[in-house]
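Board notes (copied after class):
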Amino acid sequence: MNPTAKHLLGVAAAITIAAPALLGTAASPAVAAAGAHCDRAQQDMWDNGPSRNVTALRCDIPSHRNRWYTVEIDTLVQTRYKGDTLDGGVDRTRTLHDRTIRCLGYTSDPHKGTVDWFGCPPF
């Protein structure tokens, strides 16, 4: 096979492999639109930044499993602590409305009615 034909075959293979990946990223906003919704959530804030965990109440979670979840929160209460432990006490709290976060996953406790979202990068 001559070099030009090999080059064209390589380009065709690259396009064939990359096209589904590009279409997959283009479809992600549609998946994000079907994300979770929680009425209220709490997040701890430390000296070194926000916790990567968020505890939420009254959540509607989609039945499909995603790599990342988009979570819309009506009321998010952030509690800022003095220092990096609970022993330092609360410095202040801040209430935010209509926030959207992305999280890697969740665990839920049906007895408490809470959902613990984890792996949530700062927003």
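Comment from the instructor: Residues 3-33 have pLDDT under 50 and may be disordered. DSSP finds one helix and seven strands in the chain.
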